Amino acid sequence: MRKLDLRSITMKKYKPGKQPQVQAEGSRNLLNQDFTTTSINQKWVTDITCIHTLKDGWAYLSTIQDLHTKKIIGWKFGKQMSKELIIETLDHALLNHTPSENLIIHLDLGSQYTSEAYETKLRDLTIRHSFSRKGCPYDNAGIESFHASIKKEEVYPSKAYENFEVAHLALFQYIEGFYNRKQIHSSINYLTQNQMEALALQT
Fold it and tell me: Disulfide engineering: 143 pairs with which of 4, 47, 75, 81, CB 3.0-4.6 Å?
């Protein structure tokens, strides 16, 4: 690498603060690594990832993905990793997507996802709540894969975002302008996420 004048991209690592140990009462892994679907709005997966900015420090990207289309159907970017952020993400997904009768949303056991406010909202929407097992990222492989892609293809090559607003714009352009619209996916016959959704809506 020295001979070719190549340098690795290194990024500031996120160090989480102390989080309360929360175990949702009666939490179950309904998905159980079964990522198969027959149509849209049957299985959604969601998670939060951390993105650093030079001026504003750590910020948080919350996303929801439909496993049938691989499309990011809801996302929000915030300065706090709060229950309000994930509720806003869910509201964003619901703007253009109507839950099926047996919709499952799968997530981890973070305190935001096990909050009473989030649980109540899911109950009101009759969305079934599925939880990953502790320390098992394979239980939520779809959204973990997306977050790895956005870090590799957008966040790390940028080296550093100047501030929250610059990062927000870059993430918008990646998700809405590239990933959903132009990125092809082998598991959906090399269609884009938007093409797969349009095909599902026709059937």
Answer: 47
3-class SS shares of the chain: helix, strand, coil, % to 5: 35, 20, 45
Tell me which DSSP letter residue 29 carries: -
In this structure, what are the phi and psi dihedrals at residue 123, rounded to the nearest 5 degrees? -65, -40
pLDDT of residue 18: 43
C-alpha closest to that of 82 among 33, 119, 115, 36? 115
User: For the chain, how far is it from start to end, CA to CA, in angstroms?
Assistant: 51
Q: What is the largest CA-CA distance in the chain?
A: 61
For the entire predicted model, the pTM comes to 0.86
Q: Are 153 and 144 in contact (CB under 8 A)?
A: no
pLDDT score recorded for residue 110: 87
Q: What is the pLDDT of residues 45-66, one digit of tens each?
A: 999 999 999 999 999 999 999 9
Helices (H), the chain: 83-94, 116-124, 141-150, 156-158, 164-172, 193-202
